[in-house]
Amino acid sequence: MPSSNALTGREIRKAARAAITVLEEHSLQACLFGSAACAIYGTENREPNDVDIIVMTEMDPEDIKDLIVASNELFYLVPSANPQNSYYVLWFHLPSSRTCKVDILVPGLLSIPNIPASKICYIEPFQDIPVAPFLVLLLLKLRGWEDHRHGADDRRHMRDKVEIDEEDIDALLELGVRDYQAHLDYEKWLPKWFVQESEERVYEYMEEWPESTEPWRDMGF
Q: Helix H segments across the chain?
């Protein structure tokens, strides 16, 4: 059962729009990925709990966060809960004293490829929120699954994350075949290194979950 404190889809989108607006005002191309983008594409297995944004730039993510905070007073920074980390966490003030975390990443981190502006997608009825191309979203979700599966952190915590990743991936696989006709052949622009890394993860996922083989094959893997 969802927590009564869980953010709603409307709240998640409000935070996303606010961040995207600031970035666009500074001529920075960006798009959502992660659970918020999954929900915009139509997954219904869970509500997203934060916003993940890829910014197509060579700027340091910490500088991008500073820029957002300086441009919109509803954003603020908090030091990482882990004192060994030097980065700050970006948060957005929502009504009723609620908050939403906004993660900022750039190409090159976590296997994220550079996404040309022409490939960024806008999905009805949320055409004002840019999202990563479907296959990029799915394959980055697969990267997260691999990281969590082999992570050295607390086993119970990682196991919970792996289960959530698998639910997200399964929901995306269904949508990719049924609603978006996603296929690797349609994404020739993707860097070879990204495709090769992703194919290895796809094979690992199919080995772990043989029933996922057909939709992966249907999408060109």
A: 9-25, 34-41, 61-71, 134-149, 155-178, 192-208, 213-218
In tens, the pLDDT along 102-138 reads 999 999 999 999 999 999 999 999 999 999 999 999 9
Task: Report whether 143 contacts 132 (CB < 8 A).
Answer: no
Tokens of 45: 């297995």
pTM of the shown model: 0.93
Q: What is the CA radius of gyration of the chain?
A: 17
Residue 53: its H or E element: strand 51-55
Task: Encode pLDDT of 164-179 as tens digits.
Answer: 999 999 999 999 999 9
Please give the full DSSP string across 156-177, using - where no structure is assigned: HHHHHHHHHHHHHHHHHHHHHH
Q: Are the beta carbons of 85 and 168 closer than 8 angstroms? A: no
